[in-house]
């Protein structure tokens, strides 16, 4: 049976391409503040994070903050021939990156150090095209992140970064190999999965889901 991921991907890519420059800038600024707040609150020491393509959430300010604060940063490099992905450590946004001309994104130079153990990361910040209330994620359709997470048995937090316009009220027809997110951070809020039959673990600090502007300063 055909799922709805292809249709949703096409629709939400069109929406993303129609966003105004003003909204994209506004969303990036607010989301960046929330992510940096999250990193500070949970004292993250080592993160995996992508470098955004056009109209994706721009992560460069987040990465620069981490580099300035001695937080290790690992970004993905895709192997086009094998459809595999490896995370490499960068220490400088100017000298450690090269442009992938096929996808028009920045990637780490091939000689940068590989991430040896995936679960050394405290968290993995992931791009997406669209997400739903259960935190199913639709990406660009190549499956790089889903494969990497499964093949490396990654079990730390997986957090999507998205504009609020990327949320769908439809439930995504997820396949068995699709990986759900733990949270999604947008410029408006932090989304947690809707689980009507389960209660949140009382040991988790979830007070930040109701952030006000004073807390972010």
From TrEMBL:
Give EC number(s), comma-separated: 6.3.3.2
SUPFAM superfamilies xref list? NagB/RpiA/CoA transferase-like
Report keywords, A-Z.
ATP-binding, Ligase, Magnesium, Metal-binding, Nucleotide-binding
**Which residues does the record give as substrate binding sites?**
51, 56
Catalysis: reaction(s):
(6S)-5-formyl-5,6,7,8-tetrahydrofolate + ATP = (6R)-5,10-methenyltetrahydrofolate + ADP + phosphate
Q: Where does ATP bind?
A: 5-9, 137-145
Q: Does the keyword Membrane apply?
A: no
Catalytic class of the enzyme: ligase
Which cofactors does this gene product need? Answer: Mg(2+)
InterPro entries in the record, alphabetically?
FTHF_cligase, FTHF_cligase-like_sf, NagB/RpiA_transferase-like
Q: Which GO terms describe its biological process?
A: folic acid-containing compound biosynthetic process; tetrahydrofolate interconversion
Checking Gene3D superfamilies in the record gives: NagB/RpiA/CoA transferase-like (3.40.50.10420)
According to the UniProt entry, its GO molecular function terms are: 5-formyltetrahydrofolate cyclo-ligase activity; ATP binding; metal ion binding
Family, similarity comment: Belongs to the 5-formyltetrahydrofolate cyclo-ligase family.
Protein name in the entry? 5-formyltetrahydrofolate cyclo-ligase
Name its species.
Williamsoniiplasma luminosum
